[in-house]
Amino acid sequence: MSTNINMQFDKFNPFSRENLLLPDVGDSYDLLTNLTKKRNPGKSNEETPFRLYVDLWFFSLCMCTKLGSHYIEDTSNIKCKNFESGSILGSSPNRISIITAIAISHESDIDIIQDSSKMMRIANNYAAGGALYLAKNI
Questions:
Q1: How many CB atoms neighbour CB 18 within 10 A?
Q2: Whole-prediction pTM value?
Q3: One-character DSSP codes across 72-88
Q4: Run of H or E including 134
Q5: Are 119 and 112 in contact (CB under 8 A)?
Q6: Which residue in 22, 68, 69, 110 has its CB near the most CB atoms, within 10 A?
Q7: Taking a C-beta distance cutoff of 8 angstroms, is the pair 131, 23 a contact?
Q8: First and final CA of the chain: distance in angstroms?
Q9: Which pLDDT tens digit goes with each residue over 120-138?
Q10: Which segments of the chain are extended strands (E)?
Q11: 37: helix, coil or strand?
Q12: 15-73 per-position pLDDT tens digit
């Protein structure tokens, strides 16, 4: 019985209706993801550190959280693109837990878990700061 409960919990994704956003920096992300294989089939996996945009987004989020100095409070003046829905996070419960923990830490309030949109806004703002840092330094 408890196995079924754990399996159901693992599929819980509060971010399934949210959007994952990255600042629009032209082709800079193509240097970091394997998605360029569609345009450049000769590119090897060793040449790109991230297989998908979501991997780049999550790394940017975590890096910015760790650095603590590139968080962007207001992204309204930055052109961002919606590259994926939050439903992609459903395949990675650990990422959901980390995003939730980052939001709780950022707000210093556990009640934020009741607002998935606010948690995703915080995650997107950290990811934006990290992605812009990466784009400037590649």
A1: 22
A2: 0.80
A3: -S--TTS-EEEEEEGGG
A4: helix 116-137
A5: yes
A6: 22
A7: yes
A8: 50
A9: 999 999 999 999 888 888 7
A10: 19-23, 80-85
A11: helix
A12: 999 999 988 877 666 667 765 445 555 555 566 677 788 999 999 999 999 988 788 88
